[in-house]
């Protein structure tokens, strides 16, 4: 079981705090060894939040007992960092513990020098201020988040959920991440040119279009294309294509590739099938095609992905 600290401070942004709380602090008794989370502050007393709301959190002067720190937001303008807070974050980093920032939270890590020579992102409206103050960070545009297993930064506020779901997937696997995503009622896809694609279920619906997408996800090992999907939905190809692009801002073919890569990830995590068999079950022509699309969407090979997942599981078992 991982212990998580969610950092609060005076003038806390409520939406980002809510995202962190919903992801990691909400009780989920049906999930074994779920995160044990506390909302903490290095300031004492009541803290002001967005809209004048006051919040009370656990006052701390260190983070020694926590395995992960979530920084939901931080001031985009220079702000004094308490020595105890700086020391605690630096110690977590040196110990190899995970640190996540949502939206403007990246400013705190950058101020501490922890994003130097690292890829980082934040909300697009802070781009100019961030790059001007921290030119030694490798700012990445047009992504929902960047995450290397130790430090993660999400872009806009809602992208925090995408980052959080990816962390949950790494900690608990594809099935649990999908369960949490469904409870959060996430959209089926998130556009933005990102290379990280979080596994998200297609929302259930009572119309032929959404039922067709559900059917496609259950039959990815079959030969599927836009004509097949249009027939399944009892639509003309033109009508189906127009509705699909309007709904998801992508082609049906691109969507099918994403779903197949997502299924391949699940198979790599949960089975010992060789890459050729994984490709077959995920609906790709062969292992070469799987490797091509997997690299494009996940940025690593299927074999390396499986190795990383096994390593993460070993670390999780050791810390449980």
TrEMBL record:
<keyword id="KW-0804">Transcription</keyword>
<dbReference type="Pfam" id="PF12833">
    <property type="entry name" value="HTH_18"/>
</dbReference>
<dbReference type="InterPro" id="IPR052158">
    <property type="entry name" value="INH-QAR"/>
</dbReference>
<dbReference type="GO" id="GO:0043565">
    <property type="term" value="F:sequence-specific DNA binding"/>
</dbReference>
<dbReference type="InterPro" id="IPR018062">
    <property type="entry name" value="HTH_AraC-typ_CS"/>
</dbReference>
<dbReference type="InterPro" id="IPR002818">
    <property type="entry name" value="DJ-1/PfpI"/>
</dbReference>
<dbReference type="InterPro" id="IPR018060">
    <property type="entry name" value="HTH_AraC"/>
</dbReference>
<keyword id="KW-0805">Transcription regulation</keyword>
<dbReference type="InterPro" id="IPR009057">
    <property type="entry name" value="Homeodomain-like_sf"/>
</dbReference>
<protein>
    <submittedName>
        <fullName>Transcriptional regulator FtrA</fullName>
    </submittedName>
</protein>
<dbReference type="InterPro" id="IPR029062">
    <property type="entry name" value="Class_I_gatase-like"/>
</dbReference>
<dbReference type="Pfam" id="PF01965">
    <property type="entry name" value="DJ-1_PfpI"/>
</dbReference>
<feature type="domain" description="HTH araC/xylS-type">
    <location>
        <begin position="210"/>
        <end position="308"/>
    </location>
</feature>
<dbReference type="GO" id="GO:0003700">
    <property type="term" value="F:DNA-binding transcription factor activity"/>
</dbReference>
<keyword id="KW-0238">DNA-binding</keyword>
């Amino acid at each position: 079981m991982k212990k998580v600290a969610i950092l609060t401070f005076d003038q806390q942004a409520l939406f980002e705090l809510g995202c962190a709380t919903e992801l990691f602090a909400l009780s989920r008794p049906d999930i074994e060894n779920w995160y044990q989370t506390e909302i903490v502050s290095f300031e004492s007393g009541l803290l002001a939040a967005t809209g004048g709301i006051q919040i009370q959190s656990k006052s701390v002067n260190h983070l020694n007992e926590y395995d992960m720190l979530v920084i939901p937001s931080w001031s985009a303008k220079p702000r004094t960092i308490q020595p105890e807070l700086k020391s605690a974050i630096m110690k977590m980093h040196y110990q190899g513990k995970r640190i996540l920032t949502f939206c403007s939270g990246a400013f705190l890590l950058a101020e501490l020098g922890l994003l130097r020579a690292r890829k980082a992102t934040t909300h697009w409206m802070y781009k100019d201020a961030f790059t001007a103050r921290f030119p030694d960070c490798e700012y990445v545009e047009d992504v929902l988040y960047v995450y290397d297993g130790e430090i993660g930064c999400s872009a806009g506020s809602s992208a925090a959920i995408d980052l959080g779901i990816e962390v949950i997937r790494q900690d608990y696997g594809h099935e649990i991440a999908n369960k949490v995503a469904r409870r959060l009622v996430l959209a089926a896809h998130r556009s933005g040119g990102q290379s990280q694609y979080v596994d998200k279920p297609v929302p259930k619906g009572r119309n032929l279009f959404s039922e067709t997408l559900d059917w496609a996800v259950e039959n990815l090992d079959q030969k599927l294309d836009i004509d097949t999907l249009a027939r399944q939905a009892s639509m003309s190809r033109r009508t189906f294509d127009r509705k699909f692009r309007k709904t998801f801002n992508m082609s049906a073919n691109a969507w099918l590739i994403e779903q197949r890569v997502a299924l391949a990830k699940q198979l790599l995590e949960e089975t010992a099938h060789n890459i050729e068999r994984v490709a077959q079950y995920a609906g790709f022509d062969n292992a070469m095609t799987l490797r091509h699309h997997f690299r494009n969407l996940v940025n690593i090979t299927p074999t390396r992905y499986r190795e990383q997942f096994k390593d993460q599981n070993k670390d999780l078992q050791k810390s449980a």
